[in-house]
Amino acid sequence: MTLLAVPVFGESIEQIRQDIARATELGADLVELRLDRMLAISDDEIRSLRERLKTTVPWILTLRSENEGGDWHGNEAEQVERLASLAPVAEFVDVELATRRVSEKSHHWPHDLIFSKHDVAGRPKSLLSDLFEMLDAEDCKTPKLAWRARSVRDNFEAFELMRTCTSAHTTTGPKPGIIICMGPEGLASRVLAKKFGAFATFAAIAPDRASAPGQITIAELRDLYRWDAIDDQTRVFGVIGDPVDHSVSPHVHNAAFEETGHNAVYLPLKVAASYESFKAFMVEVSARPWLDFSGFSVTIPHKENALRWIREVEGIISDTAARVGAVNTMILKPDGSFEGHNTDCPAALKTITSGMGCSTADLAKMDVAVLGAGGVARAVVGGLTDLGARVTIFNRTELKATKLAETFQCAYAPWEERGDISAHLIVNCTSLGLQPDIEDSPLHDHPLRPNQTVFDTIYNPLQTKLLRQSAEAGCTVIDGVAMFALQARDQFNLWTGQALPTEFFRAQAEKFVKTSQ
Q1: What is the architecture, at CATH level 2, of domain 239-342?
Q2: What is the mean pLDDT of residues 126-142?
Q3: Architecture of domain 3-232 in CATH?
Q4: CA separation for the pair 254, 234 (Å, rounded)
Q5: Which residues are known to be catalytic?
Q6: Does the predicted model carry a pTM greater than 0.90?
Q7: Which of 21, 51, 20, 48 has the alpha carbon at shortest distance from 34?
Q8: What sign does the dihedral 340-341-345-351 (CA atoms) show?
Q9: pLDDT tens digit string along 477-502?
């Protein structure tokens, strides 16, 4: 059983009491008293609190030093002495590995010691030797390692170390550990700790009560990332992109897994914007089938990278993905092979015809301006040119526009000429206006006409500046959530073989997309 540990700290013993009660109410299995962040509270007050509290949730005592990201500025002897004096009130004591020589001289420790090492700057060179020192130490029940993730790939090493701890051959048997990658890139190490048999993971009562970089809240861990449902058989999915902070896909797909009872969890996976970074991530995934990664959504800027990767590993590419030259949905099969699909293209066409109240035959007669030349643009341009629409591509990088236009035998125009677009339909496939830059727009103050339709494929925020401009000009507007819901529905079906209505995916997305101000 992997425990859910919740840190508490504050300026008064009453605040500590309230936070412990709140943590217990929210489902904490452990409460960590961060003594370094409650220096105004006396030891006697802490002892008295434990005597008065009726809760049976065990405590961890932690006095994190400044060198390891905490607020304790005293020397090692003082640090160990304070922990030792309070040790009887707690079930666990966190002793920093750096103080081991000092702590071994104390005779006041309970049996359950946590040895810890934190590095807020990055992966320490001594990471492995530190772990094995902890595993070999007879007085260490639980090894704890935490370091600042350099990229999402650091999580893979964390998972391996979790497995090492649960299978270690020591004189005292296996020692399930606490292995955490700090920072936003380390989210997976926190969420999947239960899958790999870690002793505990940490979550905060509220965003402003986090005790370490990247520490999410109990509500996020349990409600969004399905903590209570995760086990060693849980399949893992995620959205690969850069950025991914704006994505509501984790909310939507985790809700779909919950709705259908599917044993899976979906994570945001930030992979730097280059093919080399994308390939490095996929190589790491492929090398570890025990991770149970089973599929990915692919967003900006990796849709063409995903196609290239699947071709390199001789995977299967759907006709639609091959035709538009972009993959937004990946399937990783149990045998290690890959499939690539594109659910953007049919979703875009359906969104346009529904939003304009027309047929695909009507689209064949239209002039269309497409802003952008990335993965979404490829899906939109490919679908529209297949129908016979007269498409003109505008893109900030002219070379990409000319290549895309050549691929689909359509027109292109310089980005500077987008200010006088007379097309019936304008489709924004750029990231201009995406969260958090919601006051950006690909057209800024360029004139629009009431007889035009403007479709923005951005779905977060729901009403982008471009759509607000267009509505004020009297245009018909189509938001990106409609397309998002359709493509997400098809992704979920490809991954699970289960079907949910489009309305489910739209309703879930609308709960979390930002509304423009």
Answers
A1: 3-Layer(aba) Sandwich (3.40)
A2: 94
A3: Alpha-Beta Barrel (3.20)
A4: 12
A5: 303
A6: yes
A7: 20
A8: negative
A9: 999 999 999 999 999 999 999 999 99
